Amino acid sequence: MLELWTPKYLFWPILLIALFAFLRSILSRIQVLRMAQKDPRLDHLKERFRSLLLDGIMQWRQPRYPFSGILHLVIFWGFVVLSLRSLQLLSYGLGISILSPFETGAFWDLYGLLKDVFEILVLFTCLLSMARRLLFNPPRYKGSHEAEAYLVLGLISFLMITDILFEASYCLLAEKNELSISQAMAIPFLKFSRTSLEVIYNLSFVLHILAFLFFLNLLPLSKHFHIITALPNVFFRKLKTGSIKPVRYNVQDIEDLEYSGTKYIYDLTWKHILDIYTCTECGRCSDNCPANLVGRELSPKMLTLKLRESIYKTYPVTVQKKERPNPIIPGEVIGEGEIWSCTTCGACERECPVFIEYIDKIVDMRRYLIEQGQGPSSFNQVFINVEKTGNPFGKPPAKRADWAKEAGEIPVRILKKGDQVETLLFVDSYPSFDPKANEVTLSVVRGLHKMGEDFGILGPLERDSGHQVRRMGEEGLFELLREKNRNLLSEIRFKRIVTIDPHSFNTLKNDYGLQIPIYHYSQYLYLALENGRLKPKRVIREGTYTYHDPCYLGRHNGIYGEPRELLKGILDAPLREMSKSRDRSLCCGGADVGLWYEVREEERMASKRVKMALEIGADHIVTACPFCMIHLEDAVKTMGLEERLMVVDLMGLIDSCL
Amino acid sequence: MDVVVCLRRVPFTQEVDLEIDKGQRQILAENLAFVLNDWDNYALEEAISLKERTKGTVTAITVGTEEDEEVLRRALAMGADTAIRIDSEGLTLDPRNIARLLARVIRGLRFHLILTGAQSDDLNEGCVGAMLAEELGLPHASVVNKIELGEDVLEIKVELEGGIEEISTIKLPCLLTIQTGINEPRYVSVMGIRKAAKKELKVVTIEELSLDKEALVPDVYVERLFYPPETGGAEILEGDPHIVAEKILRILRERGVIS
Ligand code: SF4
Ligand code: SF4
Fold first, then answer.
1. Are A181 and A59 members of one domain?
2. Residues in contact with A97: Cβ distance below 8 Å, sequence separation at least 6, in sequence order
3. Could you give the CA distance from residue A560 to residue A584 in angstroms, rounded to a whole number?
4. Is B11 in the A-facing interface, judged by CB distances under 8 Å?
């Protein structure tokens, strides 16, 4: 390097001031994390490191949106490569040489080349990103801090340009010729006088350093905090989808808490606050959120941004006010309309490139509202019914197995305490009492019977699995149900549980902590088809089919293949995929809040879904969840499409082929 | 304003096929779930909201067994300050004796207003309220569906036959029996009830009330419970909903219910 005009003692104070300001901001952000609730995230370290590598560093989720994903990948990798360069320049300005041992040899030559390539790539990508935002601003950016996005893209471009100028002028001044790209960049300056080159050399250096330090200080104040927090956020991500967090970690007796759930900022867990710091405002969550798509009040991105604004206002990095505001989150910061709009479908969490969590946060707000008696009044009777009769309809437990009377000559064994059976069929409330869902129950029973399965049900002793009430925020009631069901299960000997409803499957699997294999019927029957225990007698040749992935089978539990394989086993007719399928499946309207609470919306989720089936020319929608079936069938009827489209349950279809 | 509210736990009988025990004097209760009587739930909500508006207190009372304490815990969870159970000690009590027991306890309390449900879900007699007012020598009004606060009085609304509404003023202290729909009772979460289980609950025995168990024999005595013999005249419509709906329409027309 050549001697700079600027004396070293000029950079030291600038750097120290910038670092001091930066650290102050960071410490103030950390202070909020430390105040927040516990949330243990150091389990399964192998899986965490794997995810850090794949999802954090390789950014596997980015290309789910191909164009912006690739732009982001380039910038991200640019940052990784150029961080070394920044360090080099900084140390150069300070007159220290921490990097000098490396600054020789083939590695450094290669690095120089890589650096030049990435500087040009990053500059080009930033310009492209700005142009893209200017020309076709995607709707998912609505509500994001757009000026900030331009500022940062501009800043990065500025950093690239200043370094390119610096390098080019250096090449000419030092008469260095070995780096082809730097040389090429220097071509426009060939005719410049030495003095002009020196001016460029010095000016671009100073501007680069100043811009760099400014950018550093901007990070903790902006959405670009994610440059620092994204990797830790991915590392500490929630690994077990489908489950709901406990009311409080590390609190034995939640009765001792003054209230349950989230009331104030510090009721959030530290990870949830880190989430809020990390959000990149990309809007991918909201772009896939069914609530947002049908015009409900909820947009997950905006939920995070509102929380962020509230946290930053309450705990600013600047002078601390004496009288700190203490906003109440549910009802004030986040509207009740937003809180009750979520179907817990998980589309947002599946899409978010930095693994921000929504369901646990929303359920915690619901827990607070429910315990304060501020939930929708239409829930009251449902909760009382579940508490008193074990089902949301308030039907007498004695009638829980009445559906079995329709099973004809098939014996449905009702288990008692002390009994032994191979397969325990956990029916749950809707499949026990709802007439539509009863049909699915009966077809599952017929399937098991044809397979020669030794199975039994819990009948009047079974209680609701509690999937719904837990997600509606009635944690105490959920605990009650779980305790009663777990005690009952411990008194019967069985090898596995099979469920009819994906929601019961999910809750037994992820919320109950049982040490026994739990299957949704689609998984269990798929196994039977594989090993030849299930032998369809005929195949279906008429019609065009599509499969609708239920959220709690697909997204939350990763079961996409088995239902499709089962379908292929009985179909000799086209099976097409809708525009949104597998982990991007669109929720049908959900199995909890929406059943008992009229949420304001422009369109029903199920009718949106039905339209997607029509788009691909399907005349049968197959699903594997009683609630999907109920919602979709309802939509087909209200849209007057009974003649064109049929909604069938996977098991019903299989049953017709046995 | 200090309010006393009287509660009762009743069986949850929705859609249950009730069974009569062998002695034909009682309904079999073994397999029944129990809840707070619906009317009492409204009375309780009214008491709590009066407390919140006037910064007073609420005392909840029930007569019954330990299992009946469930309704008191619900009241405590909802915001009642004190809860008292008068132990029924295995006695079958008729409304008059329940009123006498309640009166003994309430006399010793500081109160401006007593609320009860208009009737209970199980026996539908609707007389404990009136009898209790009589025992205590208080003015009373039944089936109240709105309460407004006045100076030493309450303005209350009652719906009469034929949809006529009546507004009256009643002097405090007084007793009101509450109609459903007067308010929207808040939900009490299971956690709320669990927390309330830690609050104090007073139990009073009949002896402590200086009453003689012997004197509490009922004046009214159930002789026999039975299902009425099945008679003809019922027609069960079958078929898919369209056809059933058409049949209903036809019958309604035939009988002149609609034209
Ligand atoms: S879980 Fe589903 S409904 Fe809820 S915010 Fe996420 S995407 Fe929207
Ligand atoms: S939560 Fe995730 S997906 Fe949604 S805007 Fe933020 S970073 Fe993007």
1. yes
2. A91
3. 11
4. no
A358 Cα to the center of ligand 1, angstroms: 7
As for the ipTM of the complex, it is 0.86
Of A461, A496, A530, the residue that ends a domain is A530
Task: Estimate to the nearest angstrom the gap between the alpha carbon of B206 and the chain centroid.
Answer: 22
Q: Which fold has domain B2-216?
A: Rossmann fold (3.40.50)
Domain assignment present for residue A192? The answer is: yes
pLDDT at B191: 92
Ligand showing the shortest atom-to-Cα distance for residue A594 = 1
pLDDT in tens, A506-528: 999 999 999 999 999 999 999 99
Which atom number of ligand 1 is nearest to the Cα of residue A349? 6
Segment B110-161, tens digit of pLDDT: 999 999 999 998 888 899 999 999 999 999 999 999 999 998 999 999 999 8
Note down the domain range covering A566.
Answer: 539-657
Strand B82-87 with B202-204, pairing:
parallel
| Extended beta strands in A316-427, E state | 413-414, 423-426
> pLDDT confidence of B233, banded at 50, 70, 90?
confident
Strands B140-149 and B153-159: antiparallel
Report CA-CA distances (Å) from A327 to A34, A334, A341. 19, 10, 21
Q: Is B237 on the interface with A (CB under 8 A)?
A: no
Helix H or strand E segment including B33: strand B33-36
Residue where a domain terminates, one of A487, A512, A530: A530
CA-based torsion, B60, B65, B71, B73: positive or negative = positive
Looking at the structure, do residues A36 and A184 belong to the same domain, yes or no?
Answer: yes
Q: What's the pTM value of the predicted model, to 2 decimals? A: 0.92
Of A222, A356, A360, best ligand 2 pocket probe by most atoms within 8 Å of the beta carbon: A356
